[in-house]
Write a structure and sequence with these properties.
One of its GO terms (cellular component) is cytoplasm. Pfam families: Radical_SAM (PF04055), RlmN_N (PF21016). This is Probable dual-specificity RNA methyltransferase RlmN. There is one protein chain. The protein has 346 residues and is α/β, with parallel strands linked by helices. Helix content is 33%, strand content 20%. Helix 6 runs parallel beside helix 8. The longest helix has 15 residues. The protein is elongated, with a radius of gyration of 21 Å.
């Protein structure tokens, strides 16, 4: 692979059309190639059998095609989750998770190698940010999961390692391709984009008016505690974040999900539930309570079940829609907050 070549898995259809016209080829060939690249998930140009051999050779001279390479896979004891370590072309690797639900199968996709947000309860940022993933590298995770399991992925959550809105352009390109008819045709309503609170990017995303679910990692109902748990709060405090979320719901008509990881003695008291209810009053939203998952380096202790139910009850009494997240993959360190940077063994 030459550094001058372009990875066709990184291109949206308009950019594929530019690529093909640059080769002196009819623009409609881009749509044919897109279906091979994104719907059928081929790993070589030789598999594109409705393109001439000469054209395939010309494409190969100017481009390359990333492909999912599974380095390791771990299956949860109950069989409802599989964690993958995907090896990347430069020797780095990312973790992804396949999750089986009653309503369909989901892929939890990473958007960066590492993360620079430094959230206190998350393993992904322990080594800082190494680099962004390209949109094709995100797409490869979904293709790899489908090819390995033989099951269709019908939902995607951008909740793996990294902050999706810190890799905004590639995240949007990934969403464009995976929801397209030439791609996996996953409904935008089945795509969730997670963020710890990058306010300008939330506002930019709202302006796109996409039928996505925005999930905000909140974890605290007031600034002093959130500054500690989610350091980006120092730059974009709760007043700005909640205003952006209210505007997002208003512009898109989509309710915002607030992720709230309950940690014993830190953010799970009754008065904190009351603060949260007041903070979200009147918003089109939903709170997803998550008994915090263990991360050895973080020393986080999950709240007891009784405290989770107490917190949930306070929110419900104040008219806030709330659920407690079903725990998947914790026994293989594949649950919320547990994905991390791991280099593949030689």
């Amino acid at each position: 692979m030459s550094s001058a070549k372009v990875n066709l898995r990184d291109l949206t259809l308009p950019r594929l059309e530019v690529f093909f016209t640059g080769l002196g080829v009819e623009k409609y060939r881009a749509k044919q190639a897109a279906e091979w690249i994104f719907k059928k998930g081929v790993s070589s140009f030789g598999e594109m059998t409705n393109l001439s051999k000469d054209l395939r050779e010309r494409i190969a001279g100017a481009a390359w095609l990333s492909h999912p390479e599974i380095h390791t896979r771990e299956v949860a004891q109950q069989g409802d989750a599989i964690k993958y370590l995907f090896r990347l072309h430069d020797g780095e690797a990312v973790e992804s998770v396949f999750m089986r639900h009653d309503y369909g199968s989901a892929a939890c996709v990473s958007t960066q190698v590492g993360c620079r947000m430094g959230c206190r309860l998350c393993a992904s940022g322990l080594g800082g940010l190494v680099r962004n993933l390209s949109s094709g590298e995100m797409y490869d995770q979904v293709l790899g999961i489908q090819q390995d399991t033989g099951e269709r992925v019908s939902r995607v959550v951008l909740m793996g390692a990294g902050e999706p809105l810190d890799n905004y352009r590639a995240t949007l390109d990934f969403i464009t391709n995976i929801t397209a008819g030439y791609g996996l045709n996953i409904s935008g309503r089945h795509i969730t984009v997670s963020t710890c609170g990058l306010v300008p990017a939330i506002r930019d995303l709202a302006a796109q008016k996409l039928a996505l679910t925005l999930a905000v990692s909140l974890h605290a109902p007031e600034d002093t505690l959130r500054d500690t748990l989610v350091p980006i709060n120092k730059k974009y405090p709760l007043k700005e974040l909640i205003a952006a979320c209210r505007d997002y719901a208003g512009q898109t008509g989509r309710r915002v999900t607030f992720e709230y990881a309950l940690m014993a003695g830190i953010n799970d008291r009754e008065e904190q539930a009351l603060q949260l209810a007041r903070l979200l009053e009147g918003m089109l939203c939903h709170v997803n309570l998550i008994p915090a998952n263990p991360v050895a380096e973080r020393g986080v202790v999950p709240s007891a079940q009784a405290q989770v139910e107490l917190f949930k009850g306070v929110l419900e009494r104040h008219g806030i829609a709330v659920t407690v997240r079903r725990k998947l993959g914790a026994d293989i360190n594949a649950a919320c907050g547990q994905l991390r940077r791991r280099l593949p063994a030689p």
